[in-house]
Amino acid sequence: MSPVPADELGHKPLDGGWGWMVVFGAHISIGFAYSTPKAISIFFNEIQEELGASYSEIAWVSSIMLAVMYAGGPVSSVLVKRFGSRPVVIMGGLMCGVSMVTASFGSSIIYLYLCIGIIGGCGLSFNLNASLTIISKYFLAKRPLANGLAMAGSPVFLCFLAPLNQYLLGTFGWRGSLLILGGLMLNCCVAGALMRPAITSCELSSATQKKVEQRNTDVKGRCRKNARKFLNFSFFKDRGFIIYIIGNVMFIFGAYAPIVFLSAYAISQGVEKYSAAYLLSIMGFVDMFVRPGTGLVANSKWIRPRIQYFFSFAMVFNGTVHLLCPLVKSYTSLVVYAVFSGVGFGMVFALIFECLMDLMGNQRFPSAVGLVTIIECFPMLLGPPVAGLLVDIFGDYKYLFFMCGSVVVTGGLFLFIMNIYHYHMLNKEKAAKDRQQNHNIEIQEHACTSEAEIERTEPEAAEMNRA
Amino acid sequence: MAASWKQLFFQILLLFICCGRINTETTGSTPAPLVPTTPLSTDVKSVVLTGESHTENIELLNPVNLSLECTWTGNPIKLPNITGFWRKDGNEIQNSHLTVQLENNQYNIKQVFSIVSEKDLGNYSCVFGNEVKVDFILAAPQITEVRDKPIVSYVGDFVVIECKMDKTKPMPSTWNWYRDNGTEKVQIMAAAEPGRYEIKNNEWETKLRVHNLTEADRGLYYCGAVYAIGTTMGQVKLKVITFLEPLKPFVTIVGEVIILVAAILLYERSQSKQTDRAAFPGRVENADENSTQTQSEDKGNEDSSSMRQRKI
């Protein structure tokens, strides 16, 4: 039902073996990428006191890091296509390590913006993009599962980094903690070392035959041309891509605000401070298991062809859970909300890049993901502040949940309906193409037979002439 | 500040005057603290006790004549008389024993205490019989927002220690900082060492900045919120470490990363060498197999010929 664009060369991905080590490497890499901006917020109180900055000034560090991580997508796409995933991830790991180590010597808030925000954000962006790309190169049949396992890195690392950061803060203070965190982030280089380059259609493999070599040079030329394009705007002509982008933008706009404001909402409902913080850990814990689980489910032969619909279902589920949140007041029901919210969030994030790979195919994925991340930068930065504004204007958290839930549900429904339309149009186009091909074949056959007839008749005519 | 000094002087004067008269206890109901006739405000706090015991927190700012009242209704055995007395910080107040009559099904004790200075603050309990009691905890406003975890800083660096008083509570008249030097709390005078210490007081919060930290600076620091009645303390622990301390785990982690990366890359090298070695005779084998396959259709000796090739 869904068109899985095959590679030009039709080379078969490994789907196992060393691929699982690559998934492990991607898990570490993606884990650091998503959890670091959240985990370093534990240091903010101390840094704030020492550097004399206000809370909003300090919070900018996280926002800049996230923004650069997403905005750096196109740059890292170009680098990945030119050099492959391994050097890019190793470079990213080094940059992250250096950023944290230099930040530990910081004495002004601007310095932190530069070190953690910009350099760290760049490093993370290299990590994210390259890890996703290499999964698409190593897996096809088991790709949803591989994606689910790799994306599970985010909640796993968050659960692991949060208490670790608390301990480091208490033992070494914020400077020592940043130093040690920098060392830990160098483990992304280990993850990069695991990402052995796969034989792709952009490289010449030694055992190809002449005919394939010819095709290879054509493909190689096209590859080089694509690699040089910084932002490949031709994607905007792709109907599937536009649908995906719009749905995703709506999701990202509404997805993060409920998480950011969950503890505040719980405290406003009379829940104690530590129990409110516990809600977020529950969400993260559930997320950890839901992501690989969703990958497994999406891999089944029932769901795989309909994965875009499964993705829109996950989005609608997530949005509905947020819409129901204002109805719950007691702590137990908030825990239930946190669990279901974790499930919804995990489901969407396990599938978010798998669906893009499904739409774009192996070749176009690196540039597509770069474009997607830079576009997603805006809703991600705007979502929580707009939601916060709603809380300030109305003085009630329920409007926040209503807004976020409805935006996400609308996004999911949009994807669902538009995908039905998209596949319908694809089928029509395919049928039209088939008819055209058949027609061409008929003309050719007709031409062949008429030629044969002329050939047959010519000697006869010649004989007749001679005679 | 000046008003309370005046009050204190007045009370000391009265003490000298009354001292001669209050020497012998007249009745058992008069407690030891004197009852001055100075313009101290009077406040009444009463508690009705139904169960076994109760604790009441009372926040005081200024010196006051505090009348504490205990009413007990929960006695199952309605004795006509029971003894009652007062305790301060666990110790029985001298000559505070009373015999309490049962009136309207309840027992009633009342006492007026003069709270003028910090030593008058504490835990006052009225006790009925022997076990049933009400605790009145008299204290100045407590500092709630103070770090419970130690602050960690580095030699040569500076540190900012902060203490905040809850804005819902009354504002302290000033803040003081003290350092524990092992035996007692010594007040930190910022004026004496301007390069080292900097104190910034700001109504409900105070910040102490210590520059050029050395290992000797580690220990307990106290911020004191000064009220007319006394000073409440908040405690913060400061740890000073050298930069070598986090450097050790950092170097270990970097070493681990280098070892792992080298191991992975070496493993990959050795694996690819193995596949190359296997591939080279394999390629010859391939070509031969192709040629033999075309011939073997006639010969029918495919297996033996390919086996022959593999032996090479």
Automatic annotation (TrEMBL), chain A:
Keywords: Cell membrane, Membrane, Symport, Transmembrane, Transmembrane helix, Transport. Residues 19-423 form the Major facilitator superfamily (MFS) profile domain. The chain crosses the membrane at residues 58-80, 87-105, 111-132, 144-164, 176-195, 241-265, 277-297, 309-329, 335-356, 368-387, 399-421. Pfam families: MFS_1. It comes from the Eukaryota. It catalyses: 3-methyl-2-oxobutanoate(out) + H(+)(out) = 3-methyl-2-oxobutanoate(in) + H(+)(in); 4-methyl-2-oxopentanoate(out) + H(+)(out) = 4-methyl-2-oxopentanoate(in) + H(+)(in). GO terms for molecular function: monocarboxylic acid transmembrane transporter activity; symporter activity. It is a multi-pass membrane protein. One of its GO terms (cellular component) is basolateral plasma membrane. This is Monocarboxylate transporter 2-like.
UniProtKB/TrEMBL annotation, chain B:
The keyword Nucleus does not apply. The chain crosses the membrane at residues 247-267. Residues 33-126, 141-242 form the Ig-like domain. Residues 303-312 have a biased composition (Polar residues). It holds the Pfam family Ig_3. GO terms for biological process: homophilic cell adhesion via plasma membrane adhesion molecules; synapse organization. Keywords: Membrane, Signal, Transmembrane, Transmembrane helix. Residues 1-24 form the signal peptide. GO terms for molecular function: axon guidance receptor activity. PANTHER family: CONTACTIN 5, MYOSIN LIGHT CHAIN KINASE, SMOOTH MUSCLE-LIKE. This is Embigin. It comes from Parambassis ranga.
